Amino acid sequence: MVDVEQMTLTEFHYKRYAQEYKEIDEEYRLHKLAFLIRNAKAKVNKGTDKKPKEEYAFKEFDDFFDYESVLRSVDNEFEIKRSVEKPTKKLSPAQIALLRNSRKG
Asked: Its domain of life (predicted)?
């Protein structure tokens, strides 16, 4: 309560605004989870009209979410960024700071 009593009205409004965004993000995450649960339970018809047979669309977890390929894509993206960051010529510390602090760097 001490923090709330000491903050300005503007700070309070920013905190409320940030809290609303946090709640929207949590709601998004929950809806995405519900959608993924629905997809994980998906079944496909493998039988005929006379002998219907349903099987799960995803037999294994890797069919649903390929964890290793996602990790590889993140690693590849990181490696590309690292190779772009390496300058080809020797830069002064001021030039390095300018590159890092600019919007392009």
From this structure: Bacteria
The dihedral built from the CA positions of residue 90, 95, 100 and 103, taken in this order, carries a sign that is negative
Determine which helix (DSSP H) or strand (DSSP E) holds 51, and give its type and residue range: none
The residue among 46, 49, 27, 30 whose CA lies nearest residue 38 is 30
Which is nearest to 7 in space by CA: 19, 15, 20?
15
Residues 6+ apart with CB under 8 A from 64: 39, 40, 58
44 neighbors 55 (Cβ within 8 angstroms): yes
For the segment 62-91, what is each residue's pLDDT rounded down to a tens digit? 888 888 998 998 888 888 776 666 655 788
